[in-house]
């Protein structure tokens, strides 16, 4: 089985063709074309929805042709067409969704509307053989949540952020430190040179019951520390030597201390989510990470340690499959298609689309 997948919910335009392997042993990525719009948004310090939608229109057709070519096929050689129908920016979603519907109609192929978060949550099954149920930590620019993945289309949110998403926290702190957008990779690079113990930033929600996250207090603590450093230096320096903004050393130490705090929070919340999962009578077959922040090496190492400690299998897709791409959408489409879950061409874009709408108890008959 082969599925074409289209992703346009945020600032990556992406198209891929993925095929299934015999025996449920993951999938093969036949092509995976990703075009990032970062350069177009960088000057604004974040994603500008109108620019994003127009940029998707500019490149999507070309990427579809390239993805089919690279996969050595054409539309007649794919079994279904999938697109992310949300959650995300409505303008961008409409571009990908409409293109997918048009292709499905023209080629007379089934159409599948994929929840973008579902695509991240199912990625572990694309790269490895992984049976349900399992735990997924989704950490991106727009979302931070722990999800019990019980089956295709069967998800329970165990916790989510009550304020900022993890990627948003990285990006906002990076902006305060004068780093370019998106800031996550820059913080990670600087953190390697900094002292994670210099600033004792708060670990919001640490040790709390439940698996919710809160990250805006951490961001505020970094802002206050930057202001304090500036005042201290201006007090201690002569007018000639006083400069505005933290020194290079300060920036590296702030990045390292911030990253250390966020790593601790993510590990603690995941540990708590795991506890909720097992207390309700289930045993996850692994922990999967997804979302752009999942590319962070410090986070991956810390989760590897947590899994080793708790005897859980850690499934960490390569960084290119953690950030937004078409292969994970094609794969989620393939998983749904294999179960007869196709959609009507009237399926509307869903800028807000919780993964566990209409969810029942965590474990049927046991919760
Ligand atoms: O999943 P994604 O590509 O797009 C969505 O938000 O859906 O995630 C982008 C986010 C940005 O906030 C970016 O700063 C963050 O992922 N990110 C990272 C790293 N690479 C990307 N954050 C921390 N460390 C990284 N290495
Ligand atoms: Zn994403």
Radius of gyration over all CA atoms, rounded: 21 Å
Tally of strands: 10
The class by helix and strand makeup works out as alpha/beta
Order of helices and strands: EEEHHEHEHEEEHHHHEHEHH
Helical fraction equals 40-55%
Verbal overview:
Helix 2 (49-70) packs parallel to helix 3 and helix 5 packs parallel to helix 7. The mean pLDDT is 94. The chain is α/β, with parallel strands linked by helices. It has helices spanning 38-42, 49-70, 90-107, 116-127, 166-176, 184-191, 216-236, 248-279, 297-310, 319-322, 326-338, and strands spanning 2-7, 12-20, 27-36, 80-86, 111-115, 134-139, 144-151, 154-160, 287-290, 314-315. A hairpin with a 4-residue loop joins strand 1 and strand 2 (12-20). The relative contact order is 0.18. The strands form two sheets. A five-stranded mixed β-sheet has the order 3-2-1-4-5, sandwiched between helices. It has a five-stranded mixed β-sheet with strand order 8-7-6-9-10, sandwiched between helices. It starts with a strand and ends in a 29-residue tail after the last helix.
Features:
single chain; 367 residues; alpha/beta; five-stranded mixed beta sheet; 10 strands; 44% helix; globular; binds 5'-O-[(R)-(carboxyoxy)(hydroxy)phosphoryl]adenosine; binds zinc ion
